[in-house]
């Protein structure tokens, strides 16, 4: 029988650099919390401390904020002799012990905790918000009065969605005051919960979060185009119409001087004008440049008209993306009305389609017709790639625009006659359609000859090539650009640098066939449009590719539900949970006990002689609910199956003329109860014998709220400051808010979790400190914030304004910001808030407790 020896013990290590302790390079030093770390690491950690707290340090083991001798350094801390002796003993016994590491890197500590459930249901991800937030225009940025859509302010929007390959990320779009803009409807808010009223930002993000990735990618591409290309109108951002039906719009730049205004009596350029050739050359070249830039971004229009082309303030030709979406949608609308997709159409149906298309001044390439009507209408196999929608489709549109400018309305008439003949014909093979198409091209050729003549034979030739039936045989846009640029009458403009090879390798994303123009996705209003308000859906992603789950925790469970708990006779002052119960205190001098299973009233603790101001649950071998009143009485109630009528123990604080009772309670894991009182003191009581351990003095007014986290006691006061106290020796550590004289407002509520501290003030302001540095100071309410709580990243605040404000903390520490998700109306002043395991408890001044949760 063989015996196995137990595994050898490893020497104790520094929790930061993982070196085994020794008496030379890794000397263990004891911090105030009782943990140890080596001298070198403590010195490095002290260099990373907040400048506002020079004499403190966060323990690398428990993250507790402890005192640190700034002047003397870590050598002034006591050496852990026992730990060092034990470590050296083990190293002597183990010759293969781990060698020491020199210049070990010090990792940043980051402890994450996530809630088991989420309230309210989170309907968008933090990544999606980060990608969209800089494109959301403020409420009221757009005005629709007097029949015009204009901006009411100058808004700067950052280039969040610029491709990372750009040399810099400092480009901006601007809304200029009284600028006329276009609106394209891209969604509508539909999460009409009767309890949770989503904010402006929340409604926009809820719309965005429910849209698929393809649409987000399409819109992100449009945003990149508008930022980087001068030949494409700007997409200014997203705006929600809060006053009407809650529709979300894509706001685009709008110009009134379009090509349709070249001749008031109709289409075409006046060729009697001596400068007509120069104007034609300028329009042609710059229109080619606009298409080249669209193609370089991977976009194919597939359908557009003269209304999509306009002149900017400098007289250069630009493409209106918003108008292109309107044209594409109206064209797709025709198929929704007639139900054409995927079946052979009749001649009368085709005539209606063609008439509608020409009435809106739209041109549609033959291959787009095939995709929309179904290739069976043209006897083309579905796997035939010869007629795929590609960059060549826009070459066909380019030729149509230039030809109609040359020969006028008669070009549209010939197109109408040709298309009508095609769809009314009885041809059964594609060759028959090609023959009719060639006949139509010959007719166009005959009409072009008088307009262009021999001086522009090269332009004449390239325009006819652009009208080829097979898109693969059409010239590139760059070839058309080079041809028109060679005109003698063309005046010099800026040159563009293009890569023809890059555009031939990809067929591109067709706008008219994309998600933004897909009418079948909008079940609310499929066929009603106007020139300014059009229906579509939208999704967006950073760099075009972010996958976001559309169904998140709580959404599948249904809308938010509310249960009202009645039992108190006066205002609610405190809430806590423990032992399967909800405990509520009130000015009526009682503590009610409610079951967390069905929220039914279970018991009432009576005995206080004054208003109960605070309560806390103590989870120990004998669970307790401890309550404190305005007269200084502290009552401990035993929590068991019987729930006794009398307190297990009661004791009182001493009073003086300044005294206004106990306002706050907190309990530590080591068995200390802390009371914040009207005499400006914080008192520590030993729960095992209810004796006063010490009093902490420093505040200049009533201590109104207490919070405990990571071995630090946080106290808020009417003096407007938050003080930090070490739980190890109850010594003061730091003061928040003392460096802002003249602007202090009473601290009425506190929340502490990990390295974050949140304070609610009497003036409605909320302040957030992260790692002891003030990160956010923002006014949330128009009155006092009496209570606040946080669950995961959801923050709940309530006070005088009778609503629960639901916020979300987003972003990393360096870019932390607060998102207003929405609000819950409570019809009374809110005095207590508690969120536990996806259930929100709200105590009100009207004696009621409201329980909010996501119901089935």
TrEMBL record:
Keywords: Metal-binding, WD repeat, Zinc, Zinc-finger. SMART domains: RING, S_TKc, WD40. It comes from the Eukaryota. Residues 175-494 form the Protein kinase domain. One of its GO terms (molecular function) is ATP binding. Pfam families: WD40, zf-RING_UBOX. PANTHER family: PTHR44489, WD REPEAT DOMAIN 86. This is Uncharacterized protein isoform X1. It comes from Spinacia oleracea (Spinach).
């Amino acid at each position: 029988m063989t015996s196995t020896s137990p595994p050898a013990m490893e020497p104790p290590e520094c929790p930061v650099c993982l070196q085994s302790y020794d008496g030379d390079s890794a000397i263990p030093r004891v911090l105030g919390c009782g943990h140890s770390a080596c001298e070198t690491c403590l010195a490095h950690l002290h260099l990373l401390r907040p400048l506002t707290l020079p004499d403190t340090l966060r323990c690398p083991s428990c993250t507790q904020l402890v005192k640190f001798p700034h002047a003397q350094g870590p050598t002034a801390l006591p050496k852990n002799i026992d730990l060092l002796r034990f470590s050296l003993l083990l190293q002597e016994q183990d010759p293969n012990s781990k060698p020491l590491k020199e210049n070990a890197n010090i990792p940043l500590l980051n402890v994450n905790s996530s809630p088991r459930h989420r309230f309210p249901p989170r309907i968008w991800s933090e990544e999606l918000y980060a990608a969209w937030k800089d494109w959301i225009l403020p409420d009221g940025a757009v005005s629709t009065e007097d029949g015009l859509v204009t901006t009411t302010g100058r808004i700067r929007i950052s280039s969040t969605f610029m491709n990372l390959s750009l040399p810099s990320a400092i480009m901006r779009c601007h809304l200029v005051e009284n600028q006329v803009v276009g609106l394209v409807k891209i969604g509508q808010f539909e999460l009409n919960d009767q309890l949770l009223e989503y904010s402006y930002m929340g409604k926009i993000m809820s719309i965005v979060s429910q849209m698929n990735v393809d649409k987000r990618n399409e819109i992100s591409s449009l945003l990149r185009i508008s930022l980087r290309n001068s030949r494409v109108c700007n997409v200014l951002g997203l705006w929600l119409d809060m006053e009407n039906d809650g529709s979300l719009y894509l706001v685009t730049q709008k110009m009134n001087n379009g090509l349709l205004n070249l001749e008031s009596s109709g289409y075409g350029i006046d060729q009697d004008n001596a400068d007509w050739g120069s104007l034609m050359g300028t329009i042609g070249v710059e229109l080619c440049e606009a298409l080249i830039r669209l193609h370089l971004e991977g976009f194919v229009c597939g359908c557009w008209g003269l209304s999509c082309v306009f002149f900017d303030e400098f007289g250069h030709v630009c493409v209106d993306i918003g108008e292109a979406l309107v044209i594409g949608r109206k064209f797709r609308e025709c198929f929704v009305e007639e139900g054409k997709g995927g079946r052979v159409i009749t001649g009368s149906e085709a005539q209606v389609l063609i008439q509608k298309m020409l009435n809106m001044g739209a041109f549609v390439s033959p291959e787009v017709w095939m995709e929309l009507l179904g290739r069976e209408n043209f006897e083309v196999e579905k796997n035939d790639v010869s007629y795929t929608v590609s960059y060549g489709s826009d070459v066909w549109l380019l030729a149509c625009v230039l030809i109609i400018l040359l020969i006028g309305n008669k070009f549209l008439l010939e197109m109408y006659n040709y298309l009508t003949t095609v769809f009314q014909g009885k041809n059964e093979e594609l060759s028959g359609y090609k023959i009719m198409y060639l006949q139509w091209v010959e007719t166009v050729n005959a009409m072009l000859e008088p307009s262009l003549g021999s001086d522009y034979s090269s332009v004449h030739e390239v325009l006819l090539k652009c009208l080829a039936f097979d898109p693969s045989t059409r010239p590139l846009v760059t070839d058309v650009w080079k041809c028109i640029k060679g005109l003698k009458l063309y005046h010099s403009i800026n040159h563009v640098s293009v890569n023809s090879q890059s555009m031939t390798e990809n067929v591109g994303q067709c706008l008219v066939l994309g998600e933004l123009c897909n009418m079948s996705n909008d079940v609310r209003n499929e066929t009603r449009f106007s020139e300014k308000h059009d229906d579509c859906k939208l999704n967006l992603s950073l760099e075009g590719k972010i996958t976001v789950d559309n169904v998140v925790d709580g959404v599948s469970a249904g809308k938010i539900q509310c249960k009202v708990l009645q039992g108190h006779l006066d205002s609610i002052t405190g809430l806590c949970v423990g032992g399967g119960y909800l405990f509520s205190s009130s000015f009526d001098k009682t503590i009610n006990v409610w079951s967390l299973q069905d929220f039914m009233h279970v018991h009432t603790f009576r005995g206080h002689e004054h208003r109960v101001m605070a309560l806390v649950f103590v989870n120990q071998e004998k669970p307790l609910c401890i309550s404190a009143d305005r007269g200084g009485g502290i009552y401990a109630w035993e929590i068991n199956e019987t729930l006794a009528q009398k307190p297990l123990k009661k004791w009182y604080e001493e009073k003086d003329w300044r005294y206004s009772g106990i306002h706050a309670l907190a309990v530590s894991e080591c068995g200390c109860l802390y009371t914040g009182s009207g005499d400006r003191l914080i008192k520590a009581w030993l729960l095992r014998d209810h004796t006063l351990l010490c009093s902490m003095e420093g505040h200049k007014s009533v201590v109104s709220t207490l919070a405990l986290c990571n071995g630090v006691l946080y106290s808020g006061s009417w003096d407007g400051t938050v003080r930090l106290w070490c739980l190890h020796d109850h010594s003061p550590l730091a003061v928040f808010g003392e460096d802002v004289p003249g602007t202090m407002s009473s601290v009425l509520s506190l929340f502490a979790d990990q390295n974050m501290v949140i304070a609610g003030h009497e003036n409605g302001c909320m302040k957030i400190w992260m790692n002891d540095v003030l990160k956010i100071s923002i006014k949330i309410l128009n009155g006092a914030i009496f209570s606040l709580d946080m669950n995961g990243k959801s923050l709940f605040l309530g006070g005088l304004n009778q609503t629960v404000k639901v916020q979300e903390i987003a972003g990393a520490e360096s870019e932390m910001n607060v998102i207003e998700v929405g609000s819950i109306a409570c019809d009374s002043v809110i005095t207590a808030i508690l969120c536990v395991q996806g259930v929100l408890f709200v105590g009100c001044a009207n004696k009621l407790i409201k329980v909010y949760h996501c119901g089935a």
